[in-house]
Design a protein that fits this description.
The chain has eight helices and two strands. It is mainly alpha-helical. The model has no long low-confidence stretch (mean pLDDT 94).
């Protein structure tokens, strides 16, 4: 497949929303396919991360499905169903649920989370191949600035 190269002027005229949308779809698709090959979905991994005191959770305190969905709202996709993902984690024995509906990560769930996390550096390396850290940082600074320019609360 031949890749079209653009001049700086042509690139500067390209619509950022189109390219960020296409990049998002391609990169998320790549990551989700890799995770699926390992028996995970991306939302399951995020849930485990939010429940693990070895990762995102500051205290390892259990969370309800709605609390997890709220914590993950900026990166859940429309097709993601946190309740279904929680059920799958319960069936795997990677979380338990208390009487108040809070999910708690189990030892085997934390081991699964940690095992999946070991793959992230290789995936990052593949995604970043040919892109030096300075260019990557510049890209993120530009995107963050554009987001601020349109009133985003995320940056």
């Amino acid at each position: 497949m031949e890749i079209k190269e653009y001049s700086q002027e042509e690139l500067a005229a390209q619509p950022v929303a189109y390219w960020t949308g296409v990049a998002y779809q391609e990169i998320i698709g790549f990551i989700r396919r890799r995770q699926a090959e390992l028996g995970f979905t991306q939302p399951q991994y995020w849930m485990l991360r939010h429940l693990s005191k070895q990762d995102i959770s500051p205290d390892g305190h259990g969370m309800t499905v709605p609390e997890l969905a709220e914590a993950m709202k900026s990166y859940l996709r429309p097709e993601d169903d946190p309740a279904d993902e929680a059920e799958a984690l319960l069936e795997l024995g990677w979380v338990t649920q208390d009487g108040a509906g809070r999910l708690w990560i189990t030892e085997s769930g934390d081991a699964a989370r940690a095992a999946l996390k070991t793959h992230a550096p290789a995936w990052r390396d593949l995604i970043h191949e040919g892109v030096d850290d300075a260019d990557y940082a510049t890209t993120l600074r530009v995107l963050r600035r554009m987001m601020r320019n349109v009133g985003s609360d995320l940056v």
